Amino acid sequence: MKVFGLAGWSGSGKTTLLEKLIPLFVARGLRVATVKQAHHDVDLDQPGKDSYRHRAAGASEVLLASSARWALLHELCDEPEPVLAQHLARLSPCDLVLVEGFKRETIPKLEIHRPVNGKALLYPGDSHIIAIASDAPLEAPLPCLNLNEPAQIAEFILRHLEIEK
Fold first, then answer.
1. DSSP-derived secondary structure letter, 50
2. For residue 67, is it within any domain?
3. Which of 25, 89, 92, 120 could cross-link to 30 by cystine, CB 3.0-4.6 Å?
4. pLDDT given at position 45
């Protein structure tokens, strides 16, 4: 599996870009997975549903299964938050894993930057950022890509990861 990250401040457009990139990769025949880091208490389950009640009763894991999909909910309890490598090991085999978040991981990353947000660029402090995608021209020693050109960004990622499809 090839792994590539999107990093940026909240509101920069990481998820929106991922929504545009994924179909481009899939159209090329790639099997794509994503890992999204959340900085808050994530709960995919609904109060009152059986699976929610199982967790509320103390189950450390609940696997929801249907004919369309399955999801495994794991309660960390007092365990430390897993690192990216532990999450990657749980994924089924695929061609490309796109990672949103995990800013401090040592994977190649594209920084998503919108100057209008008033936030500083991340790249000076992260040697794993290999390019910047922005909606405004930037002066930087890294390749600068147009955030509004997802096909150009997809090609850049494929070239960098040496994926030919």
1. H
2. no
3. 25
4. 79
In this model, does residue 130 exceed pLDDT 80? yes
Q: Provide the domain count of the chain.
A: 1
CATH of the domain at 87: 3.40.50.300
Q: Look up the domain containing 151 and give its range.
A: 2-40+80-161
Q: What is the pTM of this model?
A: 0.91
Mean of pLDDT over the chain: 94
DSSP string, 57-108: TT-SEEEEE-SS-EEEEE--TTSPPPPHHHHHHHSPP-SEEEEES-TTSSS-
Burial 125-150 (b: 16+ CB within 10 A, else e): ebebbbbbbbeeebeeeeebbebeeb
Q: Is residue 10 part of a domain?
A: yes
